[in-house]
Amino acid sequence: MARLVMKFGGTSVADMDRIRHAAAHIRREREAGNHVVAVVSAMAGETNRLVTFTKTAGRLQDPREYDMVVSAGEQVTAGLMAMVLQDMGVPARSYAGWQLPIRTDGAHGKARITAIEGRDVLAAATSGQVAVVTGFQGISPGNRMTTLGRGGSDTSAVALAGALKADRCDIYTDVDGVYTSDPRVVPRARRLDRIAYEEMLEMASLGAKVLQTRSVEIAMVHRVPVMVRLSFADPAASAVGTLVCDEDEIVEKLVVSGIACSTDEAKITLVRVADRPGKAAAIFGALADANINVDMIVQNISEGGQATDLTFTVSNADLERAVRVLEEARNEISYERLLNAHGAAKVSIIGVGMRSHAGVAQTMFRALADKGINIEVISTSEIKVSVLIDAEYAELAVRALHTAFGLDAD
Questions:
Q1: Do 184 and 273 share a domain, yes or no?
Q2: Which CATH number is 356's domain given?
Q3: In the Cβ-directed half-sphere of 292, how many Cα atoms lie within 13 Å?
């Protein structure tokens, strides 16, 4: 007997037929003797529809009322799921986030979970009743509804699994697991049976859309095993998927487990910044104050050592705002010119096996050179090497690296 949290995303509950199909997965686990808590998203497209309503309601949006509106979709799904389960003969009850409660900070629209008091949900699950919980939402210190940001239902599910000390959190989605790369780009990509938390976190932050980054962070902190499964599979069949787990649970580690790519990259270069203490703090402090995330950074000291060129990347959406912030801070920063460009891509190789293998970077750079792909910026960590290249060559680079590290399916 296991304690399971089962999460179903928007495409998995897009209409009544899919809700019934998802309910059949829940019934299967309950009939196997497991204690089940389900977490559901809004139906596919419903949150976007609600957001559109808020935009037409007025120019100045109260973020508290915005959260009240956009959180409604999950409540509809939870109620419908509970009704369908009851119709199948499975005892079930729906819970909104505030009823547990899932407590968050007061950052409406992007709240962070601070505590979960799940006694009632746990009691329901252990008594044989399925608790169907709304994802994506919680309650602020001022007792107002909050939402966790896009992909927040993943975060809700994993955090709830940690609070309930669940044996596993199953994420049902529109793919049957985590692949070595995007199968739409690399037809020979293959599904991984297991992937380490650290690898999944890197892949999620570098463009893989399977799991939301914050959910992986929570899983890693609380050591919650997470299984990614296909919601559209036959509920009666033996389920396959990818287990996100501790590195020690993976017997044979690949040198490189996956290739990730993000084309949402813009490059900024500050030419001839005075090479003095405090200049980097002035640059990145101004960007941080404007809530602009900076990713890859490279610094080159000019001849004579009196000035430096500083290159870094931001998202395409933040480029215009970043340029404006840096131009306004020009006197404080003291740079000669500011160059910026869209159209960059970040391609990354990820793998815990890189810690114990030499020559990984050389293999990467050689594979790209053989395809005539120029590298503009390089960034590394213990289990990742990322390069910035022209977006035109992104897919070619991903396929070349996938082959070079022996990840192609037989």
A1: no
A2: 3.30.2130.10
A3: 26
Strand positions, DSSP E, 84-211: 92-95, 102-104, 113-116, 130-134, 137-139, 145-147, 168-173, 194-196
DSSP states of 162-177 as a string? HHTT-SEEEEEESSSS
Residue numbers of the chain with a pLDDT score lower than 50: none
Contact 41, 74 (CB under 8 A): yes
CA distance 154 to 13: 14
Q: Strand, coil or helix: what is 314?
A: strand
Same domain, yes or no: 135 and 266: no
Contacts of 85 (CB under 8 A, 6+ apart): 23, 26, 27, 91, 92, 130, 132
If asked whether residues 330 and 237 sit together in one domain, one would say: no
Tokens matching residue 382: 């213990």
Question: Is residue 409 one of the residues assigned to a domain?
Answer: no
Query: Is 410 within a domain?
Result: no
Same domain, 164 and 27: yes
Q: What tokens were used for 399?
A: 């396929």
Cis peptide bond upstream of 235, omega within 30: no
Structure tokens at 127: 């008594």
**Confidence at residue 172, expressed as pLDDT on a 0 to 100 scale:** 96
Same domain, 197 and 263: no
376: helix, coil or strand?
coil
226 to each of 4, 143, 215, 321, how far by Cα in Å?
10, 31, 10, 37
Rounded to whole angstroms, how far apart are CA atoms 67 and 72? Answer: 9
Specify whether the backbone of 136 is left (phi greater than 0), alpha (psi in -120 to 50) or beta. left
Beta-carbon contacts of 112 under 8 Å, excluding residues fewer than 6 positions away, are 104, 105, 148, 214
pLDDT at 251: 77
Domain assignment of residue 94, given as a range: 3-250
Put residue 334 in one of left, alpha, beta given phi > 0 → left and psi -120 to 50 → alpha: left
Q: Which of 233, 250, 267 delimits the end of a domain?
A: 250
Residues 95 and 46 occupy one common structural domain:
yes
Structural domains in the chain (count): 2
pLDDT for the residue numbered 304: 65
User: Both 207 and 263 in a single domain?
Assistant: no
**What is the rounded distance in angstroms from the CA atom of residue 400 to the CA atom of residue 188?**
12
d(CA 273, CA 294): 18
What is the three-class DSSP state of 115? strand
**Per-residue pLDDT at 409:** 86
Domain end residue (candidates: 250, 278, 310): 250
205 with 295, same domain: the answer is no
The pLDDT of residue 303 is 63
